[in-house]
Amino acid sequence: MDVRFDTKSAAREAVWDALEDEGIARFPFPPHGRIPNFEGAPAAAERLFEEPPFTGARRLKVNPDAPQRHVRIEALRRGCVVFVPTPRLRGGFKRLDPASIPDDETKPAASLSKMDRWAEPVALDDLPPLDAIVTGSVAVTPGGHRCGKGEGYSDLEYAILRELGHDPVPVATTVHSRQRVASVPTDPHDLPLARIVTPEQTIDVADPPAPPTGIDWTALSAADLEEMPVLRELRG
């Protein structure tokens, strides 16, 4: 989609509409208001692991949304420990260790609705260094900018890791090619993309945007701190 958008919301609506109108979106429906699942998501997940750092990754953080379920499955199959943020960060982070998951249970373990049978909560201080991060996106640009569904949780999760003293690591996303746009407005706290993977193509961003160095506390409300105990813990 060779369009330069003036607002992130306009980019989101254009992508959601295109995925729905062209029959690209997959369950859950509608694609609007969420990280959209898309035709070819399993192929994009497989392609993601064809090159370092994902080929030999031992610890990944992967978002909990539907299209990246295939990334979680592939990571677990490869023996990679997967850290999953809980929706809206209300429960912090969970760990999926393939060593404790039977081979025939990998798919349900990677499903948000069923993973609690195998997932273990992880305290912030117990989050280990990660090899890389996989995030979901609504729209992405060739220069490594992205916008999610508009709630900022992926940005915040990265900022939490930096606040804890973790070094920056590469961030990738899996999307359909129709989710690529020419440009979107950016904010300082935006999560930067180093790799964009579609079912047909891997795009390594030559000069990814600078990553956040920590949490922008001025952008958070008292309600945010109340809803996300991990933030209160960090703030304390």
Write up what this structure looks like.
The protein is built from 7 helices and 10 strands. The protein has helices at 8-21, 41-48, 69-77, 106-109, 153-163, 222-227, 229-235; strands at residues 59-62, 81-85, 93-96, 120-122, 132-135, 139-140, 146-147, 171-174, 195-197, 202-204. It has an 8-stranded mixed sheet, with helices on one face. Strands 6-7 form a two-stranded antiparallel ribbon. Helix 3 (69-77) links the parallel strand 1 and strand 2. The mean pLDDT is 95.
Strand order of the largest sheet: 4-3-2-1-5-8-9-10
Integer average pLDDT: 95
How much strand content do the residues show? 5-15%
Shape from CA axes?
Answer: globular
Tell me roughly what share of residues is in helical segments: 25-40%
Question: How many separate helices?
Answer: 7
Termini, distance in Å?
44 Å
- The count of strands amounts to 10
What is the alpha-carbon Rg in Å? 17 Å
Write a brief structural summary.
This protein has helices at 8-21, 41-48, 69-77, 106-109, 153-163, 222-227, 229-235, and strands at 59-62, 81-85, 93-96, 120-122, 132-135, 139-140, 146-147, 171-174, 195-197, 202-204. With 236 residues, it is an alpha/beta fold.
